[in-house]
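HUMAN: Would you supply a protein with fold tokens?

ASSISTANT:
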Amino acid sequence: MPRHSLPALLAAAAMPLVIAATPTPTYSVAQSIAGPDGSWDYARADDDGSHVYVARSNAVTVIDVTTGAVSSLGNVQRGHAVVPLPGGKLLVTSGTDGTVRLFDTGSGTESASIPVGKKPDAAILDATMTHAFVMNADSGTVSVIDLAAAKVTKTIKVSPALEYAAFGSDGTLFINNEDKDEIDTVDVTRGAAGKTIALPGCKAPTGLGYDKAHDRLIASCANGKAAIVDAHKRQLTALVDIGSGPDAVIMDEARGLAFIPCGKDGILDILALTGVAVTHVGVVKTEVGARTGALDPKTGSIYLPTAKFGAPATAGGRPVMLPGSFHVLVLKRA
């Protein structure tokens, strides 16, 4: 063992311990994939990252990630949610006619049309992937669908203006309520709504994600905030600044990140989940209108549907989507 002088040892002991911080990954727009005209809502990628699906006004836009080929699948009336199912199936909420459609992704054929409530919007699967939970925004109910039987087995009364939802580790279903600025809770075993979680400082929450490692929820708010909620204590713990016009929270728990696409500002906010607190660690310039999106779980790439817009047709109205301008931005890690 080498000898060291006492002064040298003391000097070394007095030196501060320096721990290198984990660098925040950077993202940039790497590609733009054109698609058919029409409105859009939620997007999802399948688990193997081979395809990305976007719910559209009258069908589902399908992107083959490997080839970049774009196709259309199914027939719906104002699609909102699109959820890949086991066995090559796809669930799509059809908002105008109050149904949920099941499609075969290979042939594109419809295997079931299931009546639910008024304006079915978001839809998610339970942990077993055997039941779908559909948020009926206008009815204020949750339809529970047995996927094997392709029928509603339970309707749970909650409250109107239901938006996106997430399951907690204890099995509680958490649902954003856009009109009441709160998160509604549902005990799915009992089939009954529970206590609500107030979100002071968060206006019109829409997107919602669950951080399993820290048992917390992240809600995107229309007033430029992300609400961080302790799922166990059922209380708001922090508000993080983001852009305006968000409509989704895209979780990447494998990489310890959450992404919030903000359509009015045309940015993607990046939040780090690895610390005790959720922190804002980056912003990517995207495009106005990019408010929802999907994550490729294999590569970490992000897909954001959007379009180009012109002036509103009437004063104070919504901007008009320009014909032939719909496209999906592909963001990749540097």
